[in-house]
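Students often ask why inverse folding is considered easier than folding. One informal answer: many sequences map to the same fold, so there is more than one right answer. In these notes we will look at a single instance of the problem. The structure comes first.
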């Protein structure tokens, strides 16, 4: 199955990494999926407060 997800490096403090690991395990998610979920939840909250975030020059439909 092909994916259109981008790959990038993320540096985290050990303590933060370990906490995300605990959350991921509790929710039966991978670390990457847990981080993506947390980011999407944060973006959703910001958009509810401030309106839609529209990256320039990209189509995400």
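Output (designed amino acids):
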């Amino acid at each position: 199955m092909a994916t259109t997800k981008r790959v990038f490096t993320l540096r985290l403090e050990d303590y933060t990494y370990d906490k995300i690991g605990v959350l991921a395990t509790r929710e039966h998610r991978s670390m990457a999926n847990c981080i993506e979920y947390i980011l999407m939840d944060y973006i959703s909250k910001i958009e509810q407060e401030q309106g839609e975030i529209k990256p320039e020059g990209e189509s995400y439909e």
